[in-house]
Design goal:
With 135 residues, the chain is of the alpha+beta class. 18% of the residues lie in helices and 33% in strands. It has a seven-stranded antiparallel β-sheet, with helices on one face. It is globular. The N and C termini lie far apart (32 Å). The relative contact order is 0.19.
C-alpha cells in the first residue's frame, strides 16, 4: 500500500455509483494537506465534499485516491495531535482517524462546519442546502 492509500474497509474506491443527483452536489472543495495512512508523511490533496462522500485526489480532476463515506464519519473537529500544525482537523470514522490540515483558520472552520452540516443532514434527515454558503 502506498502513501495516501487506505484499506478497503475505510474508503470506497468505486466512483461510478448510482447515487441520486443530490448526493453529487458539491458542498465544498479545495486543496488540503492529508497525512498518509501507512507512510505518515503529509501530502497535498484536492478534497471534494458531497452529501454522501468526502473524496480526495492528487489534484483537481484526477482519479480519486480515496473516498470516505459520510455515513462512516463519527465526528469532525479541530485536532491537537500535532501542535505545530495550527489549522489541523480530524475526520473520525468507525475505523480510522484522518488528519487533515487547512491553510488558515477560516478554511479549517469552513471545512469542519460543512462536514458537521452534512453529518447533521445524514443522521437527522434535515435539509443541508444552506451549506453552499460555506464554499
Amino acid at each position: 500500500m502506498q502513501d495516501g492509500e487506505i484499506g478497503q474497509s475505510d474508503v470506497e474506491t468505486d466512483v461510478s455509483s448510482d447515487q441520486c443527483f443530490d448526493d453529487h452536489l458539491v458542498m465544498r472543495e479545495g486543496y488540503l494537506i492529508k497525512q498518509g495512512n501507512t507512510v505518515k508523511n503529509w501530502k497535498r490533496r484536492w478534497f471534494t465534499l458531497t452529501r454522501s462522500h468526502l473524496t480526495y485526489r492528487e489534484e483537481e480532476g484526477s482519479i480519486p485516491k480515496g473516498r470516505i463515506s459520510v455515513s462512516d464519519v463519527i465526528l469532525s473537529r479541530k485536532s491537537q495531535k500535532f501542535p505545530e500544525r495550527k489549522f489541523l482537523f480530524e475526520v473520525i470514522t468507525k475505523k480510522r482517524v484522518f488528519y487533515i490540515e487547512a491553510s488558515s483558520q477560516d478554511e479549517m472552520n469552513g471545512w469542519t462546519t460543512a462536514l458537521s452540516a452534512v453529518l447533521t443532514k445524514t443522521f437527522n434527515g434535515s435539509d443541508a442546502t444552506s451549506i453552499n454558503s460555506y464554499t
